[in-house]
Amino acid sequence: MAGFLLKRLAQAIFVVVVVTLIVSVAVRMTGDPALIVAQGATDITEADLERIREGLGLNEPFLKQYLATLSGLFTWDFGRSFLGGTEVSTLIAGALPATLLLAFSSLLVSIVISIPLGIRAAIRRGKWEDQVIRILSLVGLSFPNFWLATMLVLLFSITLHLLPPSGMTGWATLVMPALTMGVILTATNVRLVRTSMLEVMQSQYVMVARAKGLSERSVLYKHALRNSAIPLITFLGLQFGGLLGGIVVVERVFNWPGMGSLAFDAVAARDYPVLQSVIMILSTLIVMVNLLVDIAYGLIDPRIRTE
Amino acid sequence: MKDLSSPQVLSVEGLSVSFGKSRVIDRLSFSVGKGRTVAVVGESGSGKSVTSLSIMRLADLTGASYDAGRIVLEGEGGEFNLLDLTQDEARKIRGKDIAMIFQEPMTSLNPVYTIGEQIAEILMLHNGLSREAALAEAAKLLSLVRLPDADAMLKRYPHQLSGGMRQRVMIAIAVACRPKLLIADEPTTALDVTIQAQILDILRDLQAEMGMSIIFITHDMGVVAEIADDVVVMWKGEKVEEGPVKRIFAQPEHPYTRSLLSAVPKLGSTEGQDFPYKTPLTVLVDGQPELVGETRVQDTAQTDGAPLLSVRDMSVDFDIKKTWYGRTTHYVPAVSNATLDVYPGETISLVGESGSGKSTIARTVMQLVEPTKGRITFDGRDMAAMNLSERQKLRRDIQYIFQDPFASLNPRQTVGWSVAEPIRTHGLIDNERDTKRRVSELLERVGMPADVAERYPHQFSGGQRQRICIARALAGKPRLIIADEVLSALDVSIQAQVINLFMDLQKEEGIAFLFVSHDMAVVEKISHRVAVLYLGQIVELGSRRQVFENTAHPYTRRLLSAVPNPDPTAKREREPLSGELPSATRRAGDRPATAVYDEIAKGHFVARH
């Protein structure tokens, strides 16, 4: 197991380096940040622009700039934003917890809904409950996240006045963003749990568990669920990447002050330090979550642990 | 069968069970006396497994309905009908008064829990033991089923155990609460014969010690003769005959029982014969058994000329463990220094237990696995020296038939498409019409009507599918057919038909067979020569008669003595069997000792031991 994790760690570092390298190169091909910084000034000269570039550190060799960004992962010093000059680390310290809160709440919503529903659909296979769950999950899959978010706001904020429409000012504001992301994840996860439970329920050891005289509850939750968890956990790890991508949109709609909002503004402003740092941290996060998934495999399945 | 001297533990009375509209058990009645073993015998589809699941009340959980009849269990407070119980009440009986062992030990245990947990669970449930007490009792149970080092075993996981060990754990779980009745559903079918013999011994001893009754579901008449007191023969959901085991074997009354018994290959049946010979089949015609086919000596082997296939000093290693930079640290020598010839028209069998390397030899000859060293020549040409197109041509001359006829036909293509595939692959016939005609011919050749070509594999039984696979193998006009455990998934009556089909094909087309099997009785019936494998090495090689009648290697003797004899009056003389095959994994560089052979008679080679 230790060797296995070491190997995964090496892969993780490689992934982070490649992703950040691609982003750093790509963002430099999209325009000159000095022009954006100088926006509004009418009598700007090439000499001025050059001074701005000098001040932003853009004249340094690319590799030096890139390594400076990468070292931020260890020193927590990502330089200053081109706009306003705030420390990037300060921006991230504000945005990262908000995003993590939203991401993990969404996952939690999805797990809490999809596991019982998926199991229900599996044990009532072909009956009306199964059909309803399957149709609902298809409906959930078909919602674009921004549309669902808007509908929730219209219903709960504008019509019912139950929840604040945007911002991050307490638990009430978390409900709608988490629900939006969670429902969409749930739609796929329900199907996954259902399929995986169906397969496990056909297995011989489930029959053996029944032959022992165990209650259907023990059979399901003790013997079947843990075995059907592996595909679900794999998928949760993969979903996490998509989740962070989707969060950009949902954060915009709900005006949630997270990494998504930060990245969105940084792209528009060619704010290299912010953009690179945000993406570097998000990709590190995704890689780490998948590392956790690998560890979770070992905890759940002794066949992987003892390999 | 009512044995008045012993009280009944369970009686099944007029039981009818159906799934949806199809009736799978029809008015079945039998009873089980205290401390007796009742074998329920039948082929696939006879309803024997549904019978056991109905007694467990597990059948209704999978969608069965009990249409009529009762299943009466004797309890402390008098008798009661199991079918009247709710599932909640049935749960209190299941695992406590009636327990069950299943066919597949590899999948019967939950992979994510320890052995100890899985045994302790049932003791905590039914006997109300604390976890510590349950684990202590579990260790005792493991010693009872003769698993060594019980305390360490408790902490192990199923994947760390072999099939035989897992089945013993299953037995420990089943007898944990000292049930009155143990149902064993084909408990040894998936195991090697030596392991099967050990499991049967354990069951017999436990029965004597605990005084429990056993219902033993099986298709293997040899096992029935070894373990049963009484026999119930089932056919298409009905009981056709029942009686004490000796009577059933000596004077079978029902035609089906007679045909079943005559189809069972018996070890020693060809004693004194130099060649294998084809025997007539007993088939039921209008409910009456009739002999079909001729008796013919199978003197087809042309051993005076050059061998068709010759394998010299062939070794195949499989890497097991590597360092992170890819250097092999552990490997399994799946085959070591195998030397073997196959002559035209000859059937040579590779026998051995799982892990002996018999299938690896077959796959290497088929070019599915690369040999690590050694030389394979076919028709005098070295395989390693062949170019791609010659190798492709070889895939036509050598055909492979696999064990599982359910998995070896593409479910989305018609049977005709599958049979025609070698013809198309090798471009043997260039137009559709002639291909179709050839496919019809091939299907008829294996005893299938030609019009089945338009149908799909799921519409056929296992035996029919195996015939289709044989037809496909014949499509390329092969000179050598490799048959890898092709009979083991089939019922005995179907086995006998396929054996005869092979013999006919050999007689008419001069095909050589490399026959891979673990079933000694079948091997004796079909082979000209036999190679016995143990841990990747050939330990004995000779003519069928030499190996079976002048057995020289102790492993061959051990293998032969483990085969159950389908004769309940025969005394069991068995070499004491214990333990499992040692692990075959070795460190890199640690080669197994090269076997040295003595030729004790012409063509009879025995490894020094």
Question: What does it look like?
Answer:
The complex is a heterodimer of chains A (307) and B (609). Chain A contains 13 helices and no strands. The termini of chain A are close together. Chain A has a domain at 98-258: MetI-like fold, CATH 1.10.3720. In chain A, 80% of the residues lie in helices and 0% in strands. Chain A has helices at 2-28, 33-37, 46-56, 62-75, 88-123, 128-142, 145-159, 171-201, 204-211, 216-254, 259-269, 272-300, 302-305. In chain A, α5 (88-123) crosses α11. By secondary structure, chain A is an all-alpha fold. Chain B has 609 residues and is of the alpha/beta class. Among the domains of chain B are: 1-97 and 181-262, Rossmann fold, CATH 3.40.50.300; 109-178, no CATH class. Helices cover 33% and strands 28% of the residues of chain B. Chain B is built from 20 helices and 27 strands. In chain B, the strands form six sheets. An eight-stranded mixed beta sheet of chain B has the order 20-21-22-17-23-24-27-26, with helices on both faces. In chain B, α7 packs parallel to α8 (193-210). The interface between A and B is medium-sized, with 23 and 31 residues.
* Count of DSSP H/I helices of chain A: 13
Q: Biggest interface between protein chains, with counts per chain?
A: A-B, 23 and 31 residues
Oligomeric state of the chains? heterodimer
The name of the CATH architecture of one domain in chain B is 3-Layer(aba) Sandwich
Distance between the termini of chain A: 7 Å
Q: Estimate percent helicity of chain B.
A: 25-40%
Measured as a percent range, the helix fraction of chain A is: over 70%
* N-to-C CA distance of chain B: 49 Å
What integer value in Å does the Rg of chain B equal?
A: 26 Å
Derived structural class of chain B: alpha/beta
**Low-pLDDT residue spans of chain B:** none
Basic shape of chain A? flat
Q: What best-fitting shape of chain B do the alpha-carbon axes yield?
A: globular
N-to-C order of helices and strands of chain A: HHHHHHHHHHHHH
